[in-house]
Amino acid sequence: MSSTDKGRKAIAWLSFCLRHSWLAGILLILVMFMGIMLAVNGSEGTEEATAEAPSALNISPAVEAYRAIVEQECNANDIPECVDIILAIIMQESGASVPDVMQSSESKGLPPNSIRDPRESIQVGVAYFSVGYKQAKKDAKKNPKETAIQGYNYGGGFVGWAIENGGGWTPENAVEFARIKSDGQKRSGGVRDGQYAYGDQLYVQHVMAYLGPNVGENGGTGTTKGGSKAIEKAISTGSSIVGKSPYVWGGGRSTSDIQARRFDCSSFVRWCYSVAGIDLGPVSSTTTDTLVKKGEAVSQIEMKRGDLVFFDTYKVNGHVGIYLGDGKFINDNSSKGVWIDEMSNSYWSSTFKGVVRRVTK
Predict the structure, then answer these.
(1) Is-catalytic flag, 319?
(2) Active-site residue 331, yes or no?
(3) CA 249 to chain centre
(4) pTM of full prediction above 0.85
(5) What is the pLDDT of residues 148-176, one digit of tens each?
(6) Sign of CA dihedral 186, 189, 190, 191
């Protein structure tokens, strides 16, 4: 049937319906319903993604949900190759826990968290990052990507300075820039204890950690099998505050501490699993001594993602973390706060005596 014949039949059907009021009413209702559905479906493309899809990167599902928006803004700023970098920056800046997901308010001269729309935060943040990235890509003799990443934390002035002082970012000139900007003043206490009081001198390392592969089965590329839904929830919860939560001896045992994300090693593990629906003991009295009695003991060669691993630090079983697989574990330690460490690290390997507890299947 030709398109002309189809059009004539449609007009004839409409005329028939108009001559029969009850059919006209049905037709009107159908047209209105289709219009509403089109409006709803059409609006979906303009809202922030909320689906908690898994990622091949070491980022949370909440951050991965912004991939489509990030792709759009990276394309608009002619840096399509930077999508994963931006997602890693979002993970480091907020973990998608606040509307200003890229913490980009200050780049507009506004107080922190003034931006209340994640899409606007990404628009502003990507545009800001792209300026430094393009400059570094053009002029840096080495590490252009790292130069731009550190520039996002320090401000655009770092990019040109680093290019003139080393050809691009290096761990050493990142520290030197902070020393100059802080007049040699250092921080005391918290995750950044000992750093100069300007920016994050390890910002590149923090961001790059999220660009590694997700070692879980749920969207990951690593060889380690993913854990149960509860295990993945516990790990995702802990991962959301990597590099953002200071170690506090005795912390995490009050509502205010938990809200402020102030933990020690055992309260951190308890909190992660509590969010995942697994009760590892009372808030006020959970310690490594109580956790080492939870669940069942498994051998070192049988340990899996989600198992608790214990270390003989200041005492036997004095430290605890959650095993991630591939020789990594997440923990809250006095040196870095919440962090992902390697079991093969000389300190951790010397203090790990094979004590492993499986608290959930």
Answers:
(1) yes
(2) yes
(3) 25
(4) no
(5) 999 999 998 999 999 999 999 999 999 99
(6) positive
